[in-house]
Amino acid sequence: MGSEELNNTVDEVKSTFNLKKEVFEWFYTIVIALLIAFIIKGFLFDLVVVDGPSMYPTLHDGDRLIITKLNYEPEQQDIIVLDSTYKNREAYYDTLGDLNTLQKTIEYFKLPSNLKKKYYVKRIIAMPGQTVDLIDGKVYVDGKQLDEPYYTGETFAYDSAIEFPFTVSDDCVFVMGDNRPQSKDSRSSDLGEVPIDAILGKCSVRFWPISSFCLIDHN
Known about the structure:
Elements: H1 3-44, E1 45-49, E2 64-68, E3 79-83, H2 86-95, H3 101-108, E4 119-126, E5 131-135, E6 138-141, E7 144-145, E8 166-167, E9 172-176, E10 194-195, E11 199-208, E12 214-215
Antiparallel strand pairs: 1-2, 2-11, 3-4, 3-11, 4-9, 5-6, 5-8, 6-7, 9-10, 11-12
């Protein structure tokens, strides 16, 4: 083999080796990026879209929001994102035995559509142990009328299954939408009081539409 042929062979080997290295580096980078994205989405913050008019005029249908998760502790008046099917899904899991997190994840893909995650944006009206009452169209918490500058209308019971006064269970919160006539919330037996474990996080920023970009006021 001549020196020119030898050099060509070496170049081909180097080219092949560099290609493999580059593919590996791209694969490694993608895996790391996906892992970081998973950690951010699971533990730090997430993006959600408001679907429907239940939080009008505070939020509008189609608004894009950033919700914060890290070390979030629910407080009265917070606007939150919650998993509306959490209670029913956990009750279903209980019928299958003592499942761990991995087993629940596997079972999730087999669930009927009415048990799959469905997110609501609502406002926390009362905390665990507090009592909610509706009197003459006004909301009272522990006997004191709730100051609600975000809503000027009247608030009435949604269905007869939720009776007032209503005392919130431990580890749960009572939520309502700001647009009371068009909000299915804790006044409805379809949702009821919300387990704290069903809360994804607090709505912090509206980033879309750009003209409405703002930090979300929870008062």
